[in-house]
């Protein structure tokens, strides 16, 4: 027998039933699952040919986030070098970026699992694997130099208020990662919006740098010209070599993750495609409005698609199966309205330049209503029994 498994088997009696450590049963179960997953294969019929449990689901989402995470670490180092007027080589830029990003991830998981273990112990159920994804999504929505105490506060709000008060994973109506980010956005706007703090080696606070969505054109100049003059060309925005939150800058990496999720059927393509169509349609409509050439009204669909965190949000946040609609027509409408609201918020309210966060949270609230309307319409079309 595997010595480690034997150790777990011997210790299990202390964590179950009336054992002295029964309160820590969720932590024991989570640790055992971590070391011994997947379970041994069945040797006798009946056989399950395929299954997608929560652990496998979360693992595939994390794999889809790896391109975004790795590029985010590298870009943090690149921006740190540019803030000092230097261009670091790849390894140095990656290591400097890791110096800022890795502690944020560690704090997120440590504080998040504290709350998960606490609620699991009180409710006497197993620890959910939902935090595995939330704990990676949440850091990717943050700027690289956010204070770690704010990270702890944000993930606490996201897990407790955004999920646990509703009953835990599978019962929440809001995306926990976005709930935590929204809390920080409104509580500490200096750290979260407008100008972001760019990590710079050997500085305490870093230096302030504008994001693409905070750019406004000088009088007599168009917004696209102003963006290009500030280094926010379409190619830079698509590749991601611009200031911004850790995971939102690279459109290319977000697309890679989205395609992976669609191929593996983890994410529903209707939400992603609906969101893109809604954003393109609305951005074209506002583009045709006279005037506003110096603002994001006149930016056009490509800039709206590549700037900010829209593709990150629509690919990884909006597709959360718990807080999104369950019907196919509802998913199309859900995604389309997220794209629509993202543009409306961006162009109508300069105080909230990144509209996708509020758009997703707003539509999370209306997701059950969309399903209700779709089902009611389907029932009304049925032929009544004679």
Describe the structure.
The structure is a single chain. The chain is mainly alpha-helical. It has a single domain (about 55-375), classed as Ammonium transporter fold (Orthogonal Bundle), CATH 1.10.3430. It has helices spanning about 5-15, 25-35, 55-85, 90-125, 130-140, 150-160, 175-185, 190, 225-230, 235-240, 250-265, 270-285, 300-305, 310-315, 330-350, 355-380; strands spanning about 195-200, 205-210. A two-stranded antiparallel sheet has the order 1-2. A hairpin with an 8-residue loop joins strand 1 (about 195-200) and strand 2. The model is unreliable at about 45-50 and about 200-210 (pLDDT under 50).
Key terms:
single chain; 386 residues; mainly alpha; Ammonium transporter fold; two-stranded antiparallel ribbon; 16 helices; 2 strands; 61% helix
How many discrete domains?
Answer: 1
Global structural class: mainly alpha
CATH architecture: Orthogonal Bundle
Radius of gyration: 23 Å
Distance between the termini: 65 Å
Which strand order do you get reading across the main beta sheet?
A: 1-2
Helix coverage percent: 55-70%
The fraction of residues in strands falls at under 5%
Q: What fold name stands as the CATH topology?
A: Ammonium transporter fold
- Structural shape: globular
The topology string of helices and strands comes to HHHHHHHHEEHHHHHHHH
What's the mean pLDDT score? 81
Q: What is the helix tally? A: 16
CATH class: Mainly Alpha
Low-confidence runs of at least 5 consecutive residues: 44-48, 200-208
The main β sheet shows up as:
2 strands, antiparallel
Secondary structure tally: strands: 2
């Amino acid at each position: 027998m595997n010595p480690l498994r034997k150790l777990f088997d011997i210790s299990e009696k202390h964590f179950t039933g009336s054992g002295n450590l029964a309160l820590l049963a969720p932590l024991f179960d989570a640790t055992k699952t971590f070391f011994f997953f997947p379970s041994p294969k069945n040797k006798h019929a009946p056989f399950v040919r395929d299954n997608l449990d929560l652990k496998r689901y979360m693992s595939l989402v994390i794999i889809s986030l790896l391109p975004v995470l790795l590029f985010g670490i590298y870009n943090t180092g690149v921006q740190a070098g540019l803030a000092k007027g230097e261009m670091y080589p790849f390894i140095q830029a990656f290591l400097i970026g890791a110096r800022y990003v890795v502690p944020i991830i560690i704090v997120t998981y440590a504080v998040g699992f504290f709350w998960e273990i606490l609620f699991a112990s009180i409710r006497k159920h197993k620890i959910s694997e939902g935090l595995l994804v939330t704990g990676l999504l949440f850091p990717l929505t943050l700027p690289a130099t956010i204070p770690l105490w704010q990270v702890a506060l944000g993930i606490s709000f996201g897990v407790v208020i955004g999920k646990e008060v509703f009953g835990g994973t599978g019962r929440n109506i809001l995306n926990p990662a976005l709930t935590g980010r929204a809390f920080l956005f409104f509580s500490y706007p200096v750290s979260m919006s407008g100008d972001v703090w760019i990590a710079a080696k050997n500085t305490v606070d870093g230096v302030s740098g504008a994001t693409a969505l905070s750019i406004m054109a000088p009088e007599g100049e168009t917004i696209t010209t102003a963006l290009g003059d500030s280094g926010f060309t379409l190619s830079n925005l698509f590749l991601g070599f611009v200031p911004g939150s850790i995971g939102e800058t690279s459109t290319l990496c977000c697309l890679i993750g989205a395609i992976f999720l669609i191929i593996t059927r983890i994410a529903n393509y209707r939400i992603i495609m609906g969101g893109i169509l809604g954003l393109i349609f609305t951005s074209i409509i506002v583009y045709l409005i006279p005037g506003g050439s110096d603002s994001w009204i006149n930016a056009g669909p490509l800039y709206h698609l590549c700037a900010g965190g829209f593709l990150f949000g629509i690919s990884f946040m909006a597709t959360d199966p718990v807080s999104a609609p369950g019907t196919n027509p509802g998913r199309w409408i859900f995604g389309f309205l997220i794209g629509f609201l993202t543009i409306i918020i961006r162009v109508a309210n300069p105080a909230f330049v990144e509209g996708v966060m509020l758009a997703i949270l707003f539509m999370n609230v209306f997701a059950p209503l969309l399903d209700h309307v779709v089902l009611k319409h389907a029932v009304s079309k049925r032929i009544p029994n004679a």
